[in-house]
């Protein structure tokens, strides 16, 4: 993917300029998103130096819908967990739910056993705080709170690993020959936090294109991977029919932003159309900037495909 990508601050400033009501919340999260990006790059360098990378993708597993990390053991990354938690703690402790913890955050993620590392990763990727019950008890924390903190730490680590393992200028191995057909992430198995529509590509044989439209990509907020997906299918239940996918957007000045929601399973995913834009927005920042649409979705009793920190604790 070779489109230039904005920094978190660039995207947040751009959104705040046309949506001033969100400026306070966008400004509040900018340092955290920036810190997470910088940390992922730093971890990537550490992992490259230590010659640690993800296992190679196997087309046979991907075509069966098995994510790369499913059933995989990773090497001991205890030092990287501790480093990530130290770097993020000052930012995370500003989130109200994380400000009054009995144990300092950095301590919770220091000296983790291999088993605890795996549990944290699995809890975050499947968004299952219940898996953290024992670990949370050990530190006198609420599993929901531990899951929230872990989502940032694990995410920085998995992004670093992905950056150390895949060439960003090459086609993603899961996109070649449309090997990956699922609505969840081909690397870590998480559901996407946002979808984006790319500029149109002329390829009449490609069923991933819709007439007059660009390709749809889904983006994983946990490991930072993206993958192509059918334009008119629901990433959650797989239903694929035009009238089942509804669109929720502002009446005017949409800025290419909408929520696609499925009338069958009532899940939604924010979608941004970048066909008219020069650069690709920072995708977490873009998703955060669509909070106003998520509030409407919440009133309609729709569920996010993947709960984010802003739609869990906002
Ligand atoms: Zn992922
Ligand atoms: Zn659905």
Percent of residues in helices: 25-40%
Query: Termini, distance in Å?
Result: 32 Å
Element order, helices and strands?
HHHHHHHHEEEEEEHHEH
Q: What proportion of the residues form beta strands (DSSP E)?
A: 5-15%
Question: How is the biggest beta sheet arranged?
Answer: 7 strands, mixed
Number of strands: 7
Rg result: 19 Å
Class based on secondary structure composition and strand pairing:
alpha/beta
Count every helix, treating DSSP H or I runs of 4 or more residues as helices: 11
Ligands and ions found: zinc ion
Low-confidence stretches: none
Total domains: 2
Quick one: overall form?
globular
| Average pLDDT number | 90
Write the layout of secondary structure elements.
Layout: H1 8-18, H2 23-49, H3 59-63, H4 78-92, H5 105-108, H6 114-125, H7 133-138, H8 143-165, E1 194-197, E2 216-219, E3 226-229, E4 245-248, E5 257-262, E6 267-273, H9 283-288, H10 291-299, E7 303-304, H11 309-313
Parallel strand pairs: 1-6, 6-7
Antiparallel strand pairs: 1-2, 2-3, 4-5, 5-6
Helix pairs in contact: 1-2, 2-4, 2-8, 4-8, 6-8
The chain binds zinc ion (ZN) (2 copies).
Give the key terms.
314 residues; alpha/beta; FdhE-like fold; 7-stranded mixed beta sheet; 39% helix; binds zinc ion
Describe the structure.
The mean pLDDT is 90. Helix 2 (23-49) crosses helix 8 and helix 6 (114-125) packs across helix 8. The longest helix is centred in the N-terminal third of the chain and has 27 residues, at 23-49. The protein has two domains: 8-165, no CATH class; 176-313, FdhE-like fold (Alpha-Beta Complex). 42% of the residues are buried. Helix content is 39%, strand content 10%. The chain has helices at residues 8-18, 23-49, 59-63, 78-92, 105-108, 114-125, 133-138, 143-165, 283-288, 291-299, 309-313; strands spanning 194-197, 216-219, 226-229, 245-248, 257-262, 267-273, 303-304. The chain is of the alpha/beta class and 314 residues long. One zinc ion (ZN) is lined by residues 185, 187-188, 190, 220, 222-223, 225.
